[in-house]
């Protein structure tokens, strides 16, 4: 969730008065970091994943699964060793680190330290994930489970939490009709402050409308009566017919995702990787699609993206273009949680064809202080936003040595990619974060996705691959990616010649606009697996790269397994998690062909997820057998003892 400053949060009225101060000093801080660290080079590749978990409580007697509001109890225990080490000033090698997330039913786990560039670390990724799951699971009673699941199907339905909690549409921080404040993580004021300030800045509650899946017996038009929930008319006005309406930050920020951060060897490589991965975001979003159900109803989308984007959309009516522009500084086309709007490397410049709102004064300040226009544009674009969470203790900063104001706006611009400058006075280098992917149910799948994207960055850097297409086309791909079954049926704009490196195509000068011949439309299968004689495909390119590197047998088997999994996932031989979940609902005996995911279906679905994640169920629609070294054909899974002994 980014920056977690401690202290006393300011009200929205107070916060807005400091907005200019925070932006001005934030940019000063960025200029300072830039000049101190722009020439830093030869940093090692390091990388790490972030996994978000939900905790689910099962009541077997009533066949009900609810979200367990216990992170405030569980997290201090999970963080105990880390805190102890910090207090004693010891440098202890931990297997995992734990962080709070938006909801009190969520926790976030990362490896104890980032992985390095040795390929055998790919053998540790899945074990580390399993160990994390196990560590968290040990904190819960037998009737509760830690699950990796993107969007809990009945989030926002009556009594979806354990213990039960009441919504407060009049005085609550979100004023939601569906999502009680008790479900927000109470252990840090950031989360409820953001919720309140986003609502107050917008001038009303957030309004998310996801198209509903219209099945044979779905009532038409699909409309709900919100008066019994305490609606004063706002929900009735905001909700669209035939859509699933949601009104709180928790519907999006209460979803789980899978992120990967990479350290580049220097700022230029970081900018290059940021751009290349930007073009791949919609593609990986689509293959990882895992969110087809919202608020107890099947949706006509497969992903969480539009929901999370709407869930923190703090723009006023004027900024959104609903009202004529009077008091607001800008019209802002997108939410602060949304896809990237501009490439930041020199080679990306000519592909930037989206009109961007920027803070001109801050842009000038950066350019006057020696930051190139392209990077300055990126920052001036992020800095059109207001800060939405400010702590009184942090207002006056030493801009040479602190970066809280910069991080304040940076970490509340939640885009598909994040360009992370090094923290001041730290050994950490320039990093990029890949953020579009949805979380999968098993550690195996999550490890496969993570390893795939890490390998791809190695191939991009080694072969100087080029995936750039006009940003407006990446934007169209984002829309395509979220459609139902896009991984099988979608057509995505994709660059035709990805191996010609950074040299421009013959028909275009470097400064000219890109030509339409540079890209075409492809399916996910074609992008990953290639088109014979026409397009190499991401997986064959990774395999070419691996031919030239020294791999031990174990690592080779692991990578073959993950690549085989990704190949089948892209070809449609394996289902996306979203499709698997839809099929589960539609084939359930209680399903009434009306799109509704009842308590009982939700319970059975969560039980099934738990069984799949534990490895009790092997479903060939989701999983493949592992490739094993010769002579070792048993599935040599780690026992609980191995896990506890720190394998
Ligand atoms: P955020 O929530 O702001 O994205 P986190 O602190 O949760 O960031 O961590 C993101 C990931 O970055 C973790 O997996 C961590 O292991 C990894 N990481 C830590 N240090 C580095 C580094 N120097 N280079 C690359 N990744 C790193
Ligand atoms: Mg997180
Ligand atoms: Mg994190
Ligand atoms: Mg992150």
Radius of gyration over alpha carbons?
24 Å
Helical proportion, percent range? 25-40%
Main β-sheet description: 9 strands, mixed
User: Which residues form runs of ≥5 with pLDDT under 50?
Assistant: 636-647
Q: Would you tell me the structural class of the helices and strands?
A: alpha+beta
Strand content: 5-15%
Q: What's the overall average pLDDT, rounded? A: 94
The N- and C-terminal alpha carbons lie at a distance of 29 Å
Count of separate DSSP helical elements: 23
> Which cofactor or ligand species appear?
adenosine-5'-diphosphate, magnesium ion
Which of globular, elongated, flat, extended, rod-shaped describes the shape?
A: globular
What is the number of E strands? 17
Number of domains: 1
């Amino acid at each position: 969730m980014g920056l977690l400053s401690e202290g006393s949060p300011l009200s929205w009225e107070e916060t807005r008065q400091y907005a200019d101060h925070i932006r001005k000093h934030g940019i000063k801080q960025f200029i300072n970091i830039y000049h101190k660290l722009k020439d830093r080079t030869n940093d090692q590749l390091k990388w790490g994943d972030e996994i978000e978990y939900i905790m689910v409580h099962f009541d077997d007697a009533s066949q009900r699964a609810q979200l367990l509001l216990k992170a405030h109890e569980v997290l201090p225990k999970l963080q105990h060793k880390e805190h102890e080490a910090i207090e004693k000033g010891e440098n202890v090698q931990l297997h995992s680190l734990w962080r709070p997330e938006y909801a009190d039913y969520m926790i976030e786990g990362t490896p104890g330290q980032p992985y390095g560039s040795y390929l055998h670390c790919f053998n540790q990724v899945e074990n580390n994930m399993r160990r994390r799951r196990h560590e968290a699971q040990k904190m819960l009673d037998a009737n509760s489970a830690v699950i990796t699941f993107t969007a809990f199907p009945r989030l926002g339905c009556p009594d979806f939490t354990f213990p039960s909690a009441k919504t407060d549409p009049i005085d609550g921080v979100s004023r939601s009709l569906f999502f009680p404040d008790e479900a927000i993580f109470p252990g840090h004021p950031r989360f409820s402050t953001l919720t309140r300030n986003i609502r107050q800045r917008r001038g009303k509650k957030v309004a998310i409308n996801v198209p509903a899946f219209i099945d044979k017996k779905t009532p038409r038009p699909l409309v709900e009566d919100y008066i019994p929930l305490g609606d004063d008319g706002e929900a009735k006005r905001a909700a669209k017919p035939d859509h699933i309406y949601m009104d709180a930050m928790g519907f999006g920020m209460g979803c789980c995702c899978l992120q990967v951060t990479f350290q580049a060897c220097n700022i230029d490589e970081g900018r290059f990787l940021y751009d290349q991965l930007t073009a791949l975001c919609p593609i990986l979003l689509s293959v990882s699609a895992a969110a087809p159900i919202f608020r107890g109803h099947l949706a006509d989308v497969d992903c969480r993206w539009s929901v999370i984007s709407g869930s923190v959309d703090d723009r006023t009516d004027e900024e959104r273009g609903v009202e004529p522009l009077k008091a607001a500084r800008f019209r802002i086309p997108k939410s602060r949680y949304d896809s990237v709007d501009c490439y930041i490397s020199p080679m990306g410049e000519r592909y930037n064809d989206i009109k961007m709102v920027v803070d001109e004064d801050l842009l000038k300040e950066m350019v006057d202080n020696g930051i190139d226009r392209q990077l300055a544009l990126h920052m001036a674009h992020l800095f059109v936003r207001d800060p939405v969470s400010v702590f009184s203790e942090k207002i006056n900063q030493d801009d040479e040595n602190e970066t809280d104001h910069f991080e304040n706006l940076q970490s509340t611009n939640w885009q598909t990619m994040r360009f992370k400058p090094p923290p001041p006075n730290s050994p950490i280098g320039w990093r990029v974060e890949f953020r579009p992917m949805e979380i999968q149910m098993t550690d195996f799948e999550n490890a496969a996705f993570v390893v795939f994207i890490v390998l791809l960055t190695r191939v991009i850097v080694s072969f100087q691959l080029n995936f750039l297409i006009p940003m407006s086309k990446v934007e169209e791909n984002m829309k395509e990616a979220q459609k139902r079954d896009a991984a099988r049926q979608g057509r995505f704009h994709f660059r035709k010649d990805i191996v010609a490196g950074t040299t421009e195509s013959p028909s275009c000068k470097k400064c000219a606009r890109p030509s339409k011949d540079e890209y075409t439309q492809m399916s996910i299968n074609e992008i990953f697996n290639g088109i014979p004689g026409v397009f190499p495909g991401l997986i064959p390119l990774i395999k070419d790269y691996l031919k030239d590197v020294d791999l031990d047998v174990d690592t080779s088997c692991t990578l073959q397994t993950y690549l085989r999994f990704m190949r089948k996932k892209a070809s449609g031989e394996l289902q996306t998690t979203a499709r698997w979940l839809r099929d589960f609902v539609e084939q359930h005996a209680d399903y009434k062909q009306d799109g509704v995911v009842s308590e009982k279906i939700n319970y059975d679905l969560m039980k099934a997820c738990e069984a799949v994640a534990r490895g009790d169920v092997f479903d060939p629609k989701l999983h493949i057998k592992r490739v094993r070294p010769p002579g070792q054909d048993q599935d040599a899974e780690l026992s609980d003892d191995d896990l506890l002994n720190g394998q």
